[in-house]
Amino acid sequence: MPDAYIVAAKRTAGGRRKGALSGWHPADLAAQVVDHLVDLTGADPETIDDVIVGCVGQAGEQSFNIGRNVVLASSLPETVPGTSVDRQCGSSQQALHFAAQAVMSGTQDIVIAAGVESMTRVPMGLPYTLPKKNGLGTYISPNMQARYPGIEFSQFDGAETIARKYGFSRERLDAFARQSHERAAQATDRGQFEDEILPVEIRPFEGESEGMHVRDEGIRADTTLEGLAGLDPIVEGGLLTAGNASQMCDGASAVMVVNEAGLKALGVEPLARIHHMSVHGGDPVVMLETPIEATRRALAKAGMTLDQIDLFEVNEAFAPIPLAFIEALGADPSKVNVRGGAIALGHPLGATGTKLMATLVHALRKRDARFGLQTMCEGGGLANVTVVERL
Fold first, then answer.
1. Is 31:11 a contact under the CB 8 Å cutoff?
2. Once rounded to an integer, what is the mean pLDDT over residues 145-169?
3. Strands 272-281 vs 311-314: parallel, antiparallel or unpaired
């Protein structure tokens, strides 16, 4: 079977909710990254076979096929199609999988997988909290209610359940959160994000532009355990707080994926080869533990062991998720989220999949390492796993 190669991977720096990127329409923001990949690779815009965009809040400014709207907001010709993917937090990681499958099949040669989320302009949860009439309109169907009676499918409850299952204390969760900020701040100060971040104009929700946005806005280098300990829990009596959970974030990211024919057409050297990709479903109630079993299955299917993986990107939706991943699998903590994660850098939902891939690919190259694995928990008890090989 033909291989799928990553030839370019970029992201915007994360913008805090109502922060540096809040004035951008999400289609325009994603179009900036898409256009940059085309310029970076020297691709003839006519040769882009498809643009696949992950987005979770597909309502308001992110509705009406945001993937196609990104194309129409870009410099790509109208002949380039675009489509949208919703696999919850793994949306753009799934977009990457679809892009890779397309080029591996030979039906397409050059595909851009992207993701975008403006959590300022399309608030989290908006699509399923729209007004309902006469009790109609909930995403939980009667058959789902019968199968899971009384269940509301809360990610907060799932994360609390995982924290208690593994015996994590509030102190341990807060210590992990502080580490995320420390690693992100150090990576920023050392210029380790420069290869992956595309500078874009600062556009606050209110007021005028103030230069270029080049630094992840959520990083707090001065985070202390004392400060984290003073935060109230999200759920009364719980362990989770705003400090040890991912930050709401505005952002966009994109990866260009090609096959051998695409490489020849572009005349560029690949950054990485996609070695394995899979997706797995687990308990939709606990919901967020699936990356563990998904990784076990992925490694077995790829004929690999955990020790062969040089770097891991495990999305920090909540601190218990990567901590449980490390504990259950015996992963080396020094290889997990080495540049920090969503607790510090932000989690722009639909953009996070290709955002993490941009970080992973460039981190592998900086370290001259070979294999990287990316996974994340997703609403509904899902988890994608992608293994890449640096070239």
1. no
2. 95
3. unpaired
